[in-house]
């Protein structure tokens, strides 16, 4: 699925880096990256070579495929001191997976998207594989993005919906009227449900995690097969998600502020 090309050189380069990162440890071809970012192949190749020269990408000499480079590791190690909440979130993810048997995930808001940061597999043998660390979705698509979107101020939601048409890439279930209904339902319950809208039979639920400014920066989510999210169980799962999200939010608020503040810019 092609992304909307970013008109700036920096934006195009960033899109390519994200596309490479989405593959994890799997190397990816120039043609695939061009298709995924909506760039012409010569443009993509020129930017990929430039990124490799700066150490942001590596190229496999045998296959010509691209991987993330060492410079990103160095930068990421430094940035982790500011943004990483894995030490606080990991016990919560383990608890969610243990208590429910479902797979539990932590996602973070990055501008108009959410990116999955970490996951913990549950004990139930049938799993959904829609969500995994590194994957990104627009706000309002997966359960994590929906619950974060729903907890934003009204003006921010209106601005996002006015400039975003999710139905083009994600189907009619993500048109504005349907999305607005799910936002309302999420605000009423506090947690949200994705009833197999990405992959049929693959359900998700999520609750928002708030930073020290009481802004929804992260989300805890559970994913699994439809039969595990029947109506008589959703209240139980939603309540557990809210309790865990509240506990994690409280722990993050108690962390000292300063040079390593937990406030990533929303875009």
UniProtKB/TrEMBL annotation:
One of its GO terms (molecular function) is DNA-binding transcription factor activity. Keywords: DNA-binding, Glycerol metabolism, Transcription, Transcription regulation. One of its GO terms (biological process) is negative regulation of DNA-templated transcription. It comes from Nocardia speluncae. This is Glycerol operon regulatory protein. InterPro entries: GAF-like_dom_sf (IPR029016), HTH_MetabolicPath_Reg (IPR050707), Tscrpt_reg_IclR_C (IPR014757), Tscrpt_reg_IclR_N (IPR005471), WH-like_DNA-bd_sf (IPR036388), WH_DNA-bd_sf (IPR036390). Gene3D superfamilies: 3.30.450.40, Winged helix-like DNA-binding domain superfamily/Winged helix DNA-binding domain (1.10.10.10). The keyword NADP does not apply. It comes from the Bacteria. SMART domains: HTH_ICLR.
């Amino acid at each position: 699925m092609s992304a909307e090309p970013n008109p700036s050189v920096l934006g195009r380069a960033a899109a390519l880096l994200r596309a490479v990162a989405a593959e994890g440890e799997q190397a990816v071809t120039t043609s695939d990256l061009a298709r995924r970012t909506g760039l012409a192949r010569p443009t993509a190749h020129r930017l990929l070579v430039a990124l490799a020269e700066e150490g942001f990408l590596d190229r496999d000499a045998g296959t010509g495929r691209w991987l993330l480079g060492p410079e990103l590791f160095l930068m990421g190690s430094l940035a982790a001191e500011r943004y990483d909440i894995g030490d606080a979130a990991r016990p919560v993810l383990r608890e969610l997976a243990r208590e429910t048997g479902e797979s539990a995930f932590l996602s973070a808001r990055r501008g108009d998207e959410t990116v999955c940061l970490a996951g913990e597999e549950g004990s139930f043998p049938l799993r959904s594989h829609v969500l995994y660390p590194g994957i990104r979705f627009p706000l309002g698509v997966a359960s994590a993005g929906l619950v974060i979107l729903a907890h934003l101020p009204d003006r921010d939601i209106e601005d996002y919906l006015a400039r975003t048409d999710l139905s083009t890439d994600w189907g009619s279930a993500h048109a504005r009227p349907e999305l607005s209904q799910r936002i309302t339902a999420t605000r009423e319950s506090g947690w949200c449900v994705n009833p197999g809208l990405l992959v049929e039979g693959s359900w998700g639920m999520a609750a928002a995690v708030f930073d020290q400014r009481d802004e929804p920066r992260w989300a805890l989510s559970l994913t699994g097969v439809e039969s595990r999210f029947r109506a008589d169980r959703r209240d139980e799962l939603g309540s557990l998600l809210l309790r865990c999200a509240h506990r994690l939010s409280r722990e993050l608020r108690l962390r000292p502020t300063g040079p390593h503040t937990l406030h990533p810019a929303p875009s």
